[in-house]
Amino acid sequence: MVNHQPGTEGKTREPPLRILNQRLLRREVMHLRRFCLLPATAAAVLTATTALGQGATGVPIAPMAVDAHPSFAVATIKLHDPNYPRRQGWNFIGSRVKIDNQTLTSLMMYAFSIDPHQVVDAPEWASKTAFDVEGVTDTPGEPNRVQQQEMIQKLLADRFGLKFHREQRRLNVYAIQVAKGGPKLTPTAHPQRQSTQRGRYEGATLVLTMGSASISDFVLDMQFAGLDRPLIDRTGLKGQYDITLRYTPEESRNTDPNAAPGIFTAIQEQLGLKLQPVKGPVDVLVIDRVERRSEN
After folding, report:
1. Which of 1, 83, 158, 245 has the fewest Cβ atoms within 10 angstroms?
2. Which of 38-47, 229-238, 275-284 is least confident?
């Protein structure tokens, strides 16, 4: 729930949670409905990719070779300190990785680009026990989204002993489709760059900004937006776009009638897309074995 303090209305506030960002310790927004460690509040998203980062001296960090298949050269996993519930995020800059306050479920969501409803037969602790991960890559350069996901997949297998098999099941989903009148998407001004994303609150309104983003990047972000079902892409759009989406989580709209529209209306009015509830075949990950980590 967004708490309004006297004298803060209309000011830009740091959101309560953080999303993936390429600069270490940059505060961003993240939200998981029912599956996260915090109650469902003003929703936000998790980006799947990072931009070209900068080191402490401001010098740009070169991206990792696109054909590289990185792993963690070293990684420490600790139970998250519950006294710091807002210390939560995904940070990649160069070869350094810092992941705070994430459950096994949220790690799997990012690693496999899935919704929590697509994780089946997980133990109860998987969506409740939070971990912090710090490490460095074994390959020079800053990893792109696919490489980040590959690293986390390997970490889950090596350190949590995760074994699973895939099945296809018919589930209630939202199909992202082009709305009547066509898409309202701006082709990116920098197609050579990696995708970027950040979110911030302006009062009760969440402003999501994405650069050089594909629809698959947008879909992965929306998987973390607190929706009640998985998303599938039926837009047919193949380009890269610079996207700005302004919406207000439903909880906030209950206290601010003048806030920006909810996520469904915002996506249709601002992006020319729509979320259509349908039922269809969806891949799920059925967990066969996983080990609960303790301090290492």
Report:
1. 83
2. 38-47
